[in-house]
Model the fold of this input.
Amino acid sequence: MTVMKAADLFDLAGKTALVTGASSGLGWRFAQTLAANGAKVVVAARRLERLEALKAEIEAAGGQAAAVTLDVTDQAAVPAAFDAAEEAFGPVDIVINNAGMAVEATVVEMTAEQWRKVLDTDLDGVFHVGQEAARRMSANGGGSIVNIASAIAFTVSKTLSAYAVAKAGVVKLTQAMALELAGANVRVNAICPGYIETEINRDFFATERGQQMIQRNVPMKRLGAIGDLDGTLLLLASDAGAFLTGEAIVVDGGLVL
Done:
């Protein structure tokens, strides 16, 4: 068997990727990383103006991108987003199921509306997008679905019960999908990040309380950089992970430990 160089092993040339929740944070970075490694990337989220900025950034770097408006809580909108992706670049080979949100509230104080909002986005949205991807990939010979869960799926944190439950559900959904879709050459895996610095949490982690959380909870004693997920993303999205399915890879600097 020929030994491949890393650049060839992780090459995504000729692949089309759809990234949900791409208008900020991890989704923005995921789209950039996939495009930098050869994929034609369809960026999807609710904020079209942010997506257009990301599209321009990818194209300025020599990549190919298209922007599609998508609210993952609107089940009827999901097939339309895939149709738009296919119209732009052809059948979708890779889906990064990233859209998510959190609400901080104790179990006693959380409203039914808050609970439902988190579950609708973080679990139901992942299911709807994953289901549509699975149907189309099965018909097209295969593909890779990467669900973005969280290290909190394996632990708990006060005021984040709904988020923890949703992300634990994503891990189990990933396993169920992987089992059912393996025969159709559709791989389904999850990335479970720990504390990763993004524009949303940067200010908090710069505070004394934020720094104390890092020192107390992360054995590596640092916040994860957004680029720390690049390797895992490329492993699961590319043929480098061709025999990987049903895995939930924790990238957390030892947080769960």
